[in-house]
Amino acid sequence: MAKTDKSAAIASLKEKFSESDATVLTEYRGLSVSALQTLRRSLGADTTYAVAKNTLTRIAAQQAGIEGLDDKLVGPTALTFIKGDVATAAKGLRDFAKDNPLLVVKGGYMDGRVLNADEVKKLADLESREVLLAKLAGGLKANLTKAAQVFSALPAKAARGLGALQEKAAADPSVIGGAGEASDQEPENTPA
Fold first, then answer.
1. Which stretches does the entry tag as region Disordered (predicted)?
2. 173 or 14, higher pLDDT
């Protein structure tokens, strides 16, 4: 590979590292080209699956400010650059690996930290972003509904309490301090 080609490859990898929300490293040894194409399609439009030389990947990662991937860059390595929903892409990798055991997840990088293979698998067990947001919205709506019910119950309880007091006062005027029933006479206006 010519020096200009290497520089271009490093720049491209660095850009992908910088733009991605997460990166997952896999070993693809033994997978056919058609299997890799199937994997790429299953990961979705926001995810890029690329095979790159380990030395170029190491240099690009360092230039992007990512440290700690060196021990994972051994043997044939493919990089999954994920933009958007990380859990969905991790599920795609996990599901593909179930059907194709030659795909091995080595680890990854997300939110400034290096992930081991088990942590990437845990990401795959998360529900998708949309599902989590829907659950959050449902929880918030339920709490708002409860609050609305409490606030609407207060005036109704007060009205019932005042109605009961009025009935009791009509039966026993001493309940409200002996005021009894209202008179038909108007109060006298006395100048002060």
1. 170-192
2. 14
